[in-house]
Structures are given as structure tokens and as C-alpha cells.
Design a protein that fits this description.
Number of helices: 4
Order of helices and strands: EHEEHEEEHHEE
Structural class: alpha+beta
Radius of gyration: 21 Å
Strand order of the largest sheet: 1-3-2-7-8
Low-confidence stretches: 175-181
Length: 181
């Protein structure tokens, strides 16, 4: 997981899960408005739209900190899975056999566990490519910072375009600069 970036809208169900699990507060950023950019230039329209955002890395770190360490087997390969007396029996390399009500296999987009458990399911191209650019706040002109402050930016839909650009400012707790800068 990479710590740069955000973009996951925080849902009330996630906050309830974290609260009920006695997890630490989830790191978030927020906006108060949504700005619809004008394709001809200019600021476009502004609509009140308060939302909170987080990142996959922040969700992962918060959940992992609340989860018992002895039940999390990072980097361990799943070698066998079966049902035994109504429970899942899983053989985990380096940990032996475990028994559980729920087994979560988080082993990536080309998941060996998914291929083992659901061999008929194949990866399929979703029809889009994600690209992210990051501008260091220290190098950002004041006018641009003000424009992004407390706002989520979206282009106005133009024809049947399948490209979207969503931009928002991520406020880091402390300024970070690339090494050597």
C-alpha cells in the first residue's frame, strides 16, 4: 500500500465498523463544496457537498491496528482450504492449520487464492485506466491552493465522454519534501 493519495469516500458503515471494533480514528481529509469545472475555462459552478475522504492505505492501517496480530498472516501463502465441522480449515505456510468462521484472502489482483477457490472466475479489463498526478503543496501557487481548498473538483460531463477527472487537496499533517529537495 502506498501512502500517497486518497479518494475513498468515507461511508457511515465504515465508521460504525471502526467504532464497534474500538479502532483508532480513521485519518481523513474533507471538502465542503464540489466545484464543476467549466470546459470553456473559469471556475464553473459550486455546489455544497460536504464529504470526508480517506485512502486505502489509511483504512488498511486502521483496521490492521485493531485486528489481533496473531490472526493476521501477512506474506504467508495459503496452501489448502477445506470445510471441517462447519468451520473453515486453512493450511497456511509457516503457521500450520487454522480454523475460522471467515477466511479473508487479500493477495492482490492476480490472486492465487481466487484462482484456487474460484477457478472459473477470470480477470477482465474494466474499461478504464486510472492515472494520478501529485503536486507538492510547497510548489503550488496560492491562487491554486485557494481554489482547491475545501473543494472536490469535477469536470462538467461533456457528450458521452468516458473520462473523468476528480481532484481534491489532501492536507498532509506535516509538509513532506522529496529527499534531496
Amino acid at each position: 500500500m502506498n501512502t500517497r493519495g486518497a479518494g475513498i469516500v468515507v461511508q457511515s458503515e465504515l465508521l460504525s465498523l471502526l467504532h464497534n471494533s474500538s479502532a483508532a480514528p480513521l485519518p481523513v481529509t474533507h471538502c465542503r463544496v464540489r466545484r464543476y469545472l467549466d470546459s470553456a475555462g473559469g471556475d464553473g459552478q459550486v455546489q455544497p457537498a460536504p464529504q470526508q475522504f480517506t485512502s486505502w492505505e489509511a483504512i488498511y492501517a486502521t483496521l490492521k491496528a485493531a485486528f489481533p496480530a496473531d490472526r493476521y498472516h501477512m506474506g504467508a501463502a495459503l496452501s489448502e482450504v477445506s470445510l471441517l465441522d462447519g468451520k473453515i480449515a486453512a493450511e497456511i505456510e509457516g503457521h500450520g492449520q487454522i480454523s475460522a468462521d471467515l477466511l479473508v484472502c487479500a493477495d492482490g489482483a492476480q490472486s492465487p487464492s481466487r484462482r484456487r477457490l474460484l477457478p472459473q472466475v477470470r480477470s477482465d479489463y474494466a474499461g478504464y485506466v486510472a492515472w494520478r498526478g501529485v503536486l507538492d503543496e510547497a510548489d503550488t501557487p496560492h491562487e491554486l491552493k485557494s481554489f482547491f481548498d475545501d473543494a472536490l473538483l469535477s469536470p462538467k460531463p461533456v457528450r458521452a465522454v468516458t473520462f473523468w477527472s476528480i481532484l481534491f487537496r489532501v492536507k498532509a499533517p506535516t509538509p513532506r519534501r522529496a529527499s534531496g529537495a
